[in-house]
Amino acid sequence: MTTPSNAAAPTVLRAAESAPRLTFDAYYELVSFYARYAAVLDQGDWDAWPEFFLDECVYKVVPRENHERGLPLAVMDFESKGMLKDRVYGIKETLFFDPYYQRHIVGMPLVHAIRGNLIEAEANYVVVRTKTEEIGDVYNVGRYLDRIRQTSRGLRLESRLCVYDSEMIANSLIYPI
């Protein structure tokens, strides 16, 4: 049995060194943006959720298999802030479901590209769902694939794809991921 060579380590370091970089303040703003997004959903502040997005935006929740194969079918597929607000209205006023709490655990964002005021990034997420009088369970696991614009009002999502790892989701998906 041979021991693994450390020859690959410099390649990994070079790849990391060539990754797009944000200033510390800009990266802190990005991390805070992800944290605020999760907090709004965890608190059930549905009216605040659409405000993370531009007026013309995309929000999709799609299984990993469909995403990797380029198949368009998504569990949620919204194409504007107006559609996000319609979903909020549905959650608050028209949908009938057994209420539950969500808790988002979001990993550190990995920046893939920076082009002017556009940041392309991804972050892993886990959503734990807890129904009253039940033990919490892992509800959804995946990654956010984001296009985020710096605007005069701060960072806003141009596009968020929530690519979840399983082909199945427990029950129905009511709240945003």
Give an account of the 3D structure.
The protein is α+β, with helices and mostly antiparallel strands and 177 residues long. The protein has a single domain, classed as Nuclear Transport Factor 2, Chain: A (Roll), CATH 3.10.450. 27% of the residues lie in helices and 38% in strands. It contains 4 helices and 7 strands; from the N terminus they run ααβαβαβββββ. It has helices at residues 9-17, 24-42, 64-69, 81-94, and strands at residues 53-63, 76-78, 100-106, 110-115, 118-131, 137-151, 154-164. Strands 1, 2, 3, 4, 5, 6 and 7 form a 7-stranded mixed β-sheet that branches. A hairpin with a 5-residue loop joins strand 5 (118-131) and strand 6 (137-151). The model is unreliable at 1-15 (pLDDT under 50).
Topology readout:
Blueprint: H1 9-17, H2 24-42, E1 53-63, H3 64-69, E2 76-78, H4 81-94, E3 100-106, E4 110-115, E5 118-131, E6 137-151, E7 154-164
Parallel strand pairs: 1-7
Antiparallel strand pairs: 1-2, 3-5, 4-5, 5-6, 6-7
GO molecular function: oxidoreductase activity
Family: Belongs to the bacterial ring-hydroxylating dioxygenase beta subunit family.
Pfam family, one: Ring_hydroxyl_B
Strands, total number: 7
**Which fold does the CATH topology refer to?**
Nuclear Transport Factor 2, Chain: A
Structural class label: alpha+beta
Q: How would you sum up the major sheet?
A: 7 strands, mixed
Choose one word for the global shape: globular
Family: Belongs to the bacterial ring-hydroxylating dioxygenase beta subunit family.
Pfam family, one: Ring_hydroxyl_B
GO molecular function: oxidoreductase activity
Keywords: Oxidoreductase
